[in-house]
Design a protein that fits this description.
Shape: globular
CATH topology of the largest domain: D-Maltodextrin-Binding Protein, domain 2
Order of helices and strands: HHEEEHEHEHEHEH
Largest sheet: 5 strands, mixed
Radius of gyration: 18 Å
């Protein structure tokens, strides 16, 4: 979502200097608490001391796999956690919200993930999956952009898995007028970014 936001800020607020830190991991909440960032989009995993959350959207998690990785064919085109047990998976590290949701789903299915790599970078994740190193589980909006016109395909999970996307700000911090304007624009861009 970084490029659409940067484009929108440049078009509407050309005098606002936007600093974007795109990170797949949990470094952003620390940057909020230390004042290095005004706000961050985070996958909310529960309360974090010193960070206030505003829930924005709920995102479905989906499986993204290259053509070389066979996933079971079902009438509803869904994949279960048991179906993924033998599939090599590339996932974020164990502290990431998406990883915790996926691990919990495997546990509830009395199964375990076959994790072959832990990747905290979306561009590297896309390259690794396209390169046939494994499949991954990502939010639908991220998966849709990763797939584009490539040889990757997406499948829904059954039962469905979801994550909350929230806007995080440091507790008690008053945002500048520029940051308030960017926050409003961020909400607007996010609605169009995650829509089907």
């Amino acid at each position: 979502m970084a490029f659409p936001l940067l484009s929108a800020v440049r078009a509407r607020y050309p005098r606002v200097l936007l600093h974007i830190n795109e990170n797949f991991g949990g470094v952003l909440s620390e940057a909020l608490m230390t004042g290095r960032m005004d706000m961050a989009l985070l996958y909310e995993s529960g309360p974090i001391r010193g960070v206030d959350f505003e829930r924005l959207v709920t995102e479905e998690l989906v499986v993204v796999a290259p053509d070389g990785i066979d996933l079971p064919a079902r009438a509803d085109d869904a994949v279960t956690m048991a179906d993924l047990a033998d599939v090599p998976l590339l996932l974020p590290g164990p502290t990431h919200t998406i990883r915790r949701v996926v691990d919990q789903a495997f546990s509830q299915a009395s199964s375990a993930a076959n994790v072959v790599g832990e990747v905290e970078s979306v561009p590297l994740m896309a390259r690794a999956v396209r390169g046939g190193l494994g499949a991954t589980v990502l939010p639908r909006s991220v998966a849709r952009r990763m797939i584009g016109g490539s040889e990757l395909h997406q499948r829904h999970l059954k039962p469905a898995l979801e994550v909350q996307v929230s806007l995080g700000t440091a507790s008690g911090q008053t945002l500048s007028r520029a940051a308030e304007a960017v926050r409003e624009l961020l909400r607007e861009v996010l609605r169009s970014y995650v829509s089907p």
